[in-house]
Structures are given as structure tokens and as C-alpha cells.
Amino acid sequence: MSGYVFIVLFLGLVKMCTNHINKGASDDEVVAEVTEDNVIIAEPEEIQEPLQTVEAEPVKESVPQARRARTSRSNPHPIRSVVSYAISFPDKEDVHMDAALYWGVKPIENRDSAEQMKDGLVYAGSDPFYVLDPRMKSSIPYLVPRAHELLREIGHAFMDSLSLKGVPMHRIIVSSMLRTEEDVRKLRQVNYNASPQSCHRYGTTFDICYNRYDAVNRPVRDDTLKYVLSEVLRDKRMEGRCYVKYEVKQGCFHVTCR
User: Fold this and answer.
1) Closest by alpha carbon to 129, among 93, 88, 174?
2) Alpha helices (runs of H) in the chain, residue ranges in sequence order
3) Mean residue pLDDT across the chain
4) Residue 144 · residue 177 · CB < 8 Å
5) Domains present along the chain, CATH in parentheses
6) Burial level of 207, CB count in 10 A (0-12/13-18/19+)?
7) Does residue 143 sit in helix, strand or coil?
8) Average pLDDT, stretch 189-207?
9) Which of 80, 96, 229, 245 could cross-link to 254 by cystine, CB 3.0-4.6 Å?
């Protein structure tokens, strides 16, 4: 009887061990399946399409320029003029003459001689930045190169300043340039105040009208243009580029290069 019980217990123990071994094998198979699934799941990441990068469009250069133009029109620079024409342009004829003797040519007898003179003078006819006064009868459009350069700078600065201040475009009018000895004698016959020792004889001096201008598009009040011109001449004088005299009776600024 005892032997029978022993056999039953032994068989039960063997069965339990067998179940435990089978269960372990099943767990390993599950782990293997999970491991394979992980590999399969990872595969789609390798075939994902790369992200597309959208580049920003470059900013056009004309945009800031257009913005500056709109700003200039909407916020123009103020027109201040000068404190006083007499105070701002106090240069007497003696300092003009000193500069004329230093930078100018020798006085020329007549217009034929001036036109044939190749050294020292340049033709200073109408220019994009200024025009000649049709009333200019007592002088001819010739200047020394230094004076001609100064005149063009003044005309250019004047038009540039009008643009910044929102004023319609105008050009300055030059009423006098080089006078020959013959021109001086004829002028004194009709104008006794004309000096026989004028700085205009040396090609260093020119007169700019302050009460008449050449309108490029539409005309405006001459006072406004005079204020702007006075600012330009004041700046050039302060830069040491010229002497300026305010001519009340002649209606012009008398300018000599330095």
C-alpha cells in the first residue's frame, strides 16, 4: 500500500515539473514574438519622407527705397531759411577781390579773346542744375574751373534740398558771369554804380537770382525758394567753399569761389 502511494506522489511531482518547463518555453516564445514585433514597428521610421523646407522670399531692395520716398513726402524736412541775410552773408567786396585775384585769370579785353582762351576758363552754359538768365547781356558764360564746379554743386544741392523738403522742382537762374574789360565799360555807361574793378573780370564770380527761378514742373512762391537757396549758400560758405554777398538792389546773391 505504501508503495502505491509513493508511486502516485512521484508521478504527480513529475507532472508539475513538466508543466513548469512548458510554461517557461511559452514565455520565451512570447518574448521572441514581441521582439520581432518591435523590429517590424521600427521599419516605417526608415521610410518616412524628409520634411520639406520652405525658404523665405528675399526682401526686394525697392521696398526700403519706396518706404524712404513715402517718408520723405509724408515727413518733409522743414524750411528754416537763415537768421538774417545781412548777418549770414556779410562778405564785403574786398574779400571777394582777394579770392578773385588768387584763383582767377587776368582780365580779358573783349569777348573774342575770352572765347579763344583755352587755358584757365571753361564754358559754363546752361546745365541740368542751373540756367542762364536770358537778360544776361553784360557778361558771357565762362568761369574758371573752380567757380564752375562750385556753381554746379550749388545748383545740385538746391534741387536736392527742394526734393527733401517736398517743394516742386526748380533750377536756379544765373544772371552774371565773366565780364570783359569791354563789357565793364559798356555797363558803366548805363549803370554808374557798376564797379570798374569788378570781381566778374576774373572768372571767379557769378550772380544767382533770388527772386526768379526756372520751374521744372509747377511754380511756387519765390520766397519759399529763396529760403531754401539761402540755406544752401550758407552751408557752402560755412564749408569754406565761397564768399557770398547779399545784393539788395540787384536781386541776387553775389558768389565768389574760394
Assistant:
1) 174
2) 2-46, 62-74, 85-88, 93-103, 111-116, 145-165, 181-190, 222-238
3) 79
4) no
5) 84-257 (3.30.1380)
6) buried
7) strand
8) 87
9) 245
pTM exceeds cut of 0.85 = no
Let me know how long the chain is: 258
Q: Do 80 and 231 meet the contact criterion of CB atoms below 8 Å apart?
A: yes
Answer yes or no: are the C-beta atoms of 138 and 172 closer than 8 Å. no
**For residues 147 and 138, is the Cβ–Cβ distance under 8 A?**
no
- Average pLDDT over every residue of 200-213: 97
Q: In whole angstroms, what is the distance from residue 128 CA to residue 124 CA?
A: 12
List the grid coordinates of 149.
564746379
CA-based nearest residue to 202, from 184, 222, 225, 189: 184
Maximum C-alpha span of the chain: 171
* Cα gap 138→132, rounded to integer Å: 12
Distance CA 163, CA 44 (A): 66
